[in-house]
Amino acid sequence: GYGRGEASDDSRCVMVEIKTVNSRYCDQQVRLPRVLAALENRIRELIGQRVARGKVDVFINYVDTGEAAYQVVVDAGLARSYASALREMAQVANIPADFNVAALSRFADILRVEATSPDPESTWTLLYSALTMALDALIRMRALEGACLARDIRRRVKELAALLEGIALRAPSVVGEYRARLTARIEELLGEQAADVFDEQRIAAEVAVFADKCGIDEEITRLESHLKQMDDLLKQSGPMGKELDFLVQEINREINTIGSKANDLELTKRVVAMKTQLEKIREQVQNLE
Q: How many CB atoms lie within 10 A of CB 16?
C-alpha cells in the first residue's frame, strides 16, 4: 500500500510518504530530518495504532523558510586557534599581524549555519496532520487490496472444500477395494485350494487393521471446520492476518495427516491438489493485515 500527506503553515511544510509491503509483524522504518528526531516515538506510536502488520517505510520531509529556521554559529575555540596561528606566522615572518575579523571568517568551519530546533508541540500538530492524511490514504488502498485478496482466498477455500468432499466420498471405497484385492491375491496364490483354507475371520481382521490405519474421518471433520472458520473470517472486516495464519497451519497439518494415511492413488492426487491450493492461500494471507 501507499499513502501521502502534506500539511503547512505560514513558513513550514511537512510532507509524509508511507509504503507498506507484506510481513508477519509490524516492522517500521522511519526516515526523518534530524530536527524532527524528538518526535520519532510519537510517529511510531501513531503508525502502530493504525497499522497492525507489514513492513512500513516512512519518509518525512520538513521545510522551514522562516527567519528563525537557521542560525549562524561561531566556533570560538577554532577562531582563537586561527588568530593565534596568524600572529605566530607574523612573528616568524617579522611582518605586522594586521588581519581582521573579515579575514578570520574566511577560514573553514569558523562560521557554521545550523538549523534551529523547532517548537515540538506546534511542529507535532503539523506533522500529525500530514501523517494522519498519509495513513488514511494508505489504509484506503490496503482495504481495496485486502478485499481483492479476500475474494481470491475465499475462491480457493471453496476449491479446497470441493477437493475435501471428493476425498470424503472416495475414502469409504478404499477399505472395500482393499478387501477385494486381498481376497483376489489369496485366490491367486492358493488357486483351487483357496476355498478350503479361506479364513473369513482372518480376512476381516486384516481389513479392520487396514481400516484403522487409513481412517481419516476425524481429519475430514476437522478440515471441514477449519475451512468454514476461514470462510467466515474472510467475510468480516478488520485485521485477520494472524488468525488466518493459524488456520493455514492447522489445515496444513490435517492435509499432511490425510496424505500419510492415504493408501490410494485417487486420494493422493486430491491431497497434492489441496496442498497446492493451500500454498497459494498461504502466500496471499501474508499480504493481509
A: 26
